Amino acid sequence: ATYSREILLDRPDGVVVQYAVVRLDLGCCPAAARATILAERTPLGHVLQRLPGSLRIEPVGFVCATLPAPLAARFGARAGQQAWGRLVCIDHDGDRLVEGLELLAPD
Q: pLDDT tens-digit profile of 49-99?
């Protein structure tokens, strides 16, 4: 089964500095981790860091995206501004666990 999540990382003052959208293969997660992910109360990065075994994070591409209005609004930016980011894959013990897009807030 797959699961998708949008993630906003913000500073203490509430300014969003990174947006991400990820797709996870829940079949690669132990049952306890899967339940924690689906409960959506714990940051995904915390759940992944606590997994037994090894994680391998691999950037597979870099992007420059023109922000549509809804995404620009999350950053407090103007529609049409450009944001840089990366496509990333995370493997857990050799199995593809996460595929995602991370974008940094535009300047």
A: 999 999 999 999 999 999 999 999 999 999 999 999 999 999 999 999 999
Count of residues for the chain?
Answer: 107
Q: How far apart are CA 4 and CA 40, in angstroms?
A: 11
Backbone angles phi, psi at 2, to 5 degrees: -110, 160
Which strand (E) or helix (H) includes residue 22?
strand 16-25
Radius of gyration of the chain (CA): 15
Which pairs with CB-CB distance under 8 Å and at least 24 residues apart come from 47-55?
48/90, 48/92, 48/97, 48/98, 51/92, 53/92, 53/93, 54/92, 54/93, 55/90, 55/91, 55/92, 55/97
* pTM greater than 0.85: yes
Instruction: Compute φ and ψ for 91, nearest 5 degrees.
Output: -105, 140
